[in-house]
Prior knowledge:
By secondary structure, the protein is α/β, with parallel strands linked by helices.
Amino acid sequence: MRVERQGAKGGHPEAEQGDINTTQARQRYWERNLSGAARNWFEEDARVFLHQSLSTPVLNVISRAQGIHIEDLSGKKYIDMHGNGVHNTGFNHPTVIGAVRRQLEESLTFCPRRYTNIPAVRLAKKLTEIAPGEGALNRVLFCPGGSDAIEMALKLAKLVTGRFKTISFWDSFHGAGFGAAGVGGEEHFHGGIGPLVPGAFHVEFPNYYRNPWGFSNPDDVDVECLRQIELVLRREPEMAAVIGEPVSANPVVPSRRYWEGVRDLCRRYGALLIFDEIIEGFGRTGKMFASEHYLTPDILVLGKSLGGGIVPLAGIVTREEYNVCKDRSIGHYTHEKNALAAAAGLAAIEVIEQEKLCDHAARLGARALERLQEMADRHPLIGCVMGIGLHIGIDLVRDRKTKEKASREAEAVMFKCMEQGVAFKTIDGNMITLRPALVITQQEMDGALDVIEGAIGEVERGSNY
Ligand SMILES: Cc1ncc(COP(=O)(O)O)c(C=O)c1O
């Protein structure tokens, strides 16, 4: 039996998600772009994997991921402006590949639990050195994936405070596990499976362009969002933690005043502040960690690019005073101290530092945002552009006054760009998100923006996909 779903915001989920695998535009993309071997492997994949929205059936079959590009079976290259957030150093960076090769040749890849190894210790030490707070965050715990790391952070906050409730944000994504999906704020990822973890409360993220109150003054948004958090803290005493991404995935960039306000509330009510930097860490926002734009959290959660885009690796970095789990295990993972993953992680950080990728991302991101603002003057379909560093979003609207989401149009822009070698993902249906590898050059970024502008223009002139 199949139960028909309704989207969390009314209507069918397609209206919210845009970039899902059941739309007519996706069907047309397959018809136009998949043939021969690609079509066969695509069908094999769809036959063998359990289907789920957003992943199977897939978009296309790739044979290579190198630098800023992915390449499909026909040899067509795409600048990958999504990369699932693992590709900050570019796919297969030679330094990272070299480190992984050396580690393989040293015959130490896996490290059984209860033992340690030098790469794992070195990576943990390095993280404590570069983490925000100048030494304030000096305890590390690794695990294989981001969802696990989020759950370790939640468990730690609950053990430290002796409380179990959490506040997180509507529309956020923190991973697929029960605990991570419980603090996540999208029905798409937690609906239909009954109760998750009790005590997970949600509030609005300070979105300055779209908020339920229709405020356009950022100060009003901050004040109201802080008021909502305090309301929950007062009415639901004994809160263990507030958990959020410093900059949302869209990406909405909150004011410094907002996060300082949240931190002050956390202190006042005895809750810990957890920052999920699984996407934003390692240079994405123009600093090594997005926290550096704001403040030092109590627990910093890392993942994705931590494994150099090659080996799955995630973890938490926290304060000395929270080293309190001697009688419990909050992250007893088989791959807790995987030597191969640690070697990849160390090499990835070396690349980010040596190639000055944080400054590069800040510079290219600022220039891209400037260009996108200029584009917005020419294109009514662009309602708003936002972002920081190479973490950029374009909110497409049918009408600038009503801000009606242009989801079908965003999907059409996406497929038109893909056919011209620029791949990205839409979020919330109508948001184009651009997160290229940080090694992208100015010229490559300009070329990608030209393609995007061309596609937006075509869609505005009525050419659909
Ligand atoms: C912000 C954020 N947190 C957590 C996760 C979960 O990470 P993983 O897929 O490695 O479990 C993701 C993954 O997309 C993410 O974007």
